[in-house]
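User: Reviewer 2 asked us to show a designed sequence for the structure in our supplementary figure. I'm pasting the structure tokens here. Could you produce the per-position amino acids so we can include them in the response letter?
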């Protein structure tokens, strides 16, 4: 891996480099994505079936687009029993963690008859998009579905592209069933996002779309935002390890590579105060590449977006970490909890040398749907909050309104909104202020 001194210039170059990976940088795909969205909006099922045949080579129609109970039962027969047990244990951890995020409606009443409050209501219907292809990501199914279940969403539907045989990956199906998905539809890509956003004869319109996907899925979600809600525009995976001379170079190298193997756009960065650790980690990376199955992808990822930055002080290293605002941030230092208190921007923070990033991906419980491309400066991980909406509650007695009606009328008149002022005035027009 390339080793550089952390300077203002190298940090700025790195930030500019990382931003090139954002889905917002791929505008050349937007026209084709919009064409798919428009076609589905106009032709509904007919367009979804045609695009599924074109992109997935699968013959899907109104009779088989919805996954049947028989197909789910068949999927259970194809999933290893030990994996199923792991899925169930992970599911419980994820459920328990998100249960702590729940908030309740509240009301504050006063003696004069004023009642103010907040009513919390779960979304009615949510769509979860799950990528297909050769890879199956049951962990993403659990992470997207469980916070919605905990929030109390009435109906959770899932779309995922079928294989050429018209079947859905069995591991994906089993994870969906275990997590409590109500219906699974065989549709992928931008056409699935369009179906969820606009509704078709087979696939109902949802209130919110969540879940990762390729550039077409990301741009489709961006295009339908406002018509429905979405979780985020997900970019490539990234990890930043913050380490000092006490860190284990083998652990650090292994953790960096755990994200670099995702794809060629993934980013893996080490920021350290130790030149010695930097050299040792680089050597360990080379050794691991000789034995890892996705070495070719990892090498391209590291060539493109892999960095080891050597900082003068830990304060400089922390400043760089906050500026980069990584999706995953590991702290492997002598006093990791102290360092953690100085971190402002990160999607998920892993503290100590035994909090390896895959722990969060699969099992610990916190959500692994995280902000990328520096958006951890203002976005949060997927949570129960993403599946609720809040309504303000206002109730005043006549006595309570009488006390403030002159103030309200003065405010309204200052804005030249006389109908606003009149709306309050008429309630007391026969009474003295």
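Assistant: Here is a per-position design you can include in the supplement:
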């Amino acid at each position: 891996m390339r080793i550089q001194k952390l300077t203002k210039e190298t940090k700025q170059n790195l930030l500019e480099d990382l931003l090139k990976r954002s889905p917002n940088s791929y505008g050349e795909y937007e026209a084709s994505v919009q064409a798919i969205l428009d076609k589905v909006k106009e032709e509904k099922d007919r367009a979804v079936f045609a695009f599924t045949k074109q992109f997935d080579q699968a013959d899907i129609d109104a009779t088989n687009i919805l996954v049947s109970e028989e197909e789910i039962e068949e999927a259970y027969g194809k999933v290893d029993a030990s994996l199923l047990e792991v899925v169930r244990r992970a599911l419980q951890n994820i459920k328990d963690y998100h249960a702590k995020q729940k908030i309740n409606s509240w009301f504050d009443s006063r003696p004069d008859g004023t009642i103010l409050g907040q009513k919390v209501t779960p979304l009615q219907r949510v769509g979860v998009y799950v990528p297909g292809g050769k890879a199956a990501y049951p962990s993403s199914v659990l992470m997207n579905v469980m916070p919605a279940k905990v929030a109390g969403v009435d109906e959770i539907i899932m779309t995922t592209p079928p294989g050429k045989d018209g079947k859905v990956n069995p591991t994906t199906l089993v994870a969906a069933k275990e997590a409590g998905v109500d219906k699974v539809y065989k549709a992928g890509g931008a056409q699935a996002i369009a179906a969820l956003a606009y509704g078709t004869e087979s696939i109902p319109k949802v209130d919110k779309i969540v879940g990762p996907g390729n550039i077409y899925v990301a741009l489709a979600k961006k295009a339908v935002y406002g018509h429905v809600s979405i979780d985020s525009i997900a970019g490539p995976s990234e990890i930043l390890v913050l380490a000092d001379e006490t860190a284990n170079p083998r652990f650090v190298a292994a953790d960096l590579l755990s994200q670099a193997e995702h794809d060629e756009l993934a980013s893996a960065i080490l920021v350290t105060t130790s030149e010695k650790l930097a050299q040792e980690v680089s050597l360990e990376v080379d050794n691991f590449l000789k034995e890892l199955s996705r070495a070719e992808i990892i090498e391209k990822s590291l060539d493109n977006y892999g960095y080891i930055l050597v900082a003068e002080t830990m304060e400089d290293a922390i400043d760089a970490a906050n500026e980069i605002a990584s999706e995953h941030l590991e702290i492997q230092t002598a006093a990791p909890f102290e360092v953690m208190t100085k971190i402002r921007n990160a999607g998920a923070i892993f503290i100590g040398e035994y909090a390896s990033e895959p722990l969060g991906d699969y099992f610990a419980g916190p959500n692994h749907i995280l902000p990328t491309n520096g958006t951890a400066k203002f976005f949060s991980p997927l949570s129960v909050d993403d599946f609720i909406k809040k309504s303000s509650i206002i109730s005043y007695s006549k006595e309570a309104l009488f006390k403030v009606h002159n103030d309200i009328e003065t405010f309204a008149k200052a804005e030249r909104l006389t109908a606003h002022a009149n709306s309050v005035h008429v309630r007391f027009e026969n009474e003295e202020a």
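For the response letter, you might also mention the following. The chain has 17 helices and 14 strands. The CA atoms of residues 30 and 274 lie 44 Å apart.
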